[in-house]
Amino acid sequence: GLPAALRALPLELTVLYNFLLFTVGASDSAIKGEAEGIRQGLLRVLEACGACGRDLGMEELWEKVLQEVTVEELQAPLQRLGALQAAWWLAASQLGSVAGLFHLLSTAEDPGRAPCSEGQNELLSVIKAWQVPPEGASLPLVQSAKDLKEILCTAAAFLQGLQELEAGNFPTALSLLQEAAGGFCSKKILAQIYTCLGCCAQRMGKPQTALQHLKRALQVDFQCLPALSHVAAVYHELGEMDAELQALALLYEALGKNPPAAASSSPYFLMRTELLVHTPVLTSLLHQHHPSEVKYLLAQRCLQDGRVADAVEHYLDFLSLLQEGLQQQVPLDGSSALPRIPEVFLEAASALGQAGRHQDAITLCEEVISRTTDLIPRVLRVEERLEQPECSVPGAELSQKKESLCCLAWRAAGYLHQGWAWARLGESKEAVTQFSRETTSGGCCVQGCVCLAVTENLQPEVELLQKIRLLALLGRGAQFLELGRHKQALLDFQHSLQLSPGDPAAASYLVQTLWELNRKQEAAAQWQKFSQSCPGEDGQQQVQGRPLPLYLVSCLEQAVSPHRESLARSIQDYLGAAAQDTSS
């Protein structure tokens, strides 16, 4: 409450500088908001000089103070306070304000100083060009302005590098992040910078360079586990499955341990780079998976690579984590690597089936079926109102329909897996029952599935249902063949080709059925037709241009006729003999 006095202001501003640094250091959290103490200090400087600036914003206030206050004793405290103001603006990503402030600080210090040369980063240039004011022996500082300048340079390079990375300007981002890596920071921040360098190199299509940066991050601070997560992602991109699984296993092990104390900044500073850099893009790049997410990734990758025994072990470990309350373990903000829980159950059932544990697979699928049945409406309309094309489906209604279709697909996939499990157990009649339940649940409940008026937003879900129904018809038809019920099998395969014209598996089974019914001429004609027009297998691995869900891949493989090649040879022999008879 005392009036401002010029001779006391150098001490007052130095105390303010130290106080703000102590406040930041004590909170040990990211700087947010405005530094109200700085504003009050500047107003007191203007008051002592007979001026006023209460209606000015912070940038205008700094400009007024630095241009109008010429008292020599105030220059060094104001310069230091300006550097502290720059820290607050850097934390708010107000990079233009920081550059403008350092221009003012340097002009007030040396009016004749030349601007930075073309091609240099302006913000880094003006910070580096700023001359640190000398420290007075009678006014000790808790953190020197020289150290603060180095931290500002590092933070500015890091922040700009992240901005350029987010904008897709990868060469510029790489240069700025390399500048930051050579700056003044703790081991923790240095590891984060190397992690960002690795992500930048990966996006530039340089996976080996990315691995070098990420490994450097782990050498600096092995507790930078996001770097290990990115290492696994790079190996996945390179197709190096062994290395990816090793990285994921290390990550899972590290996440399960109690982390030691964070790497110290040595020496310790009140104002640190980590308090200034906290952007959404950095949070995204440094997202740390929960152990359960990593366990799922291990299971998924093993299943994708055909390592069935390992996949089963990881899936069962993951399912045991579910019993511990997974909602308390993973974030619910959409950043989790986990799919929907019914899909995980179905993937686990697929792994168990491939491992020959068919009863366990049946049990898991029954869990999915029982949990989803009550969530499915009796009738689900998915077609557009063609008489009112301008009327769009309300968002909530569309979301509910998508959810209902997902539940329907999961239940149908559960019946599908149960059908194949019973088939592998030699129980063809039970298998037919399960496949029939799928064709009923997947078709009769949905109105609009096979018409062309399906709402575009629901098309992927509807096509997935159609794919599951196709696989169930193929499975049931195959079991009818096993039971010697060829005419019923023929109807299923014909229906399959109506659902998916030219489907290789359906076409092969149709030809096989005709051949076994001794309709050899018709079978040969169909074989010739389909051998010329059937799409490749890659097309069967997709739904609406997207990869087939992992839990359906094994069903697709089981739907392929085991007699396809021998049947083709028999038909070729038959056609050859027929051609010889005609020529003679």
TrEMBL record:
GO terms for cellular component: Fanconi anaemia nuclear complex. It comes from the Eukaryota. TPR repeats lie at residues 470-503. SMART domains: TPR. GO terms for biological process: interstrand cross-link repair. Keywords: Signal, TPR repeat. The keyword Signal applies. The keyword Signal applies. Residues 1-25 form the signal peptide. This is FANCG protein. It comes from Erithacus rubecula. The lineage of its organism: Eukaryota, Metazoa, Chordata, Craniata, Vertebrata.
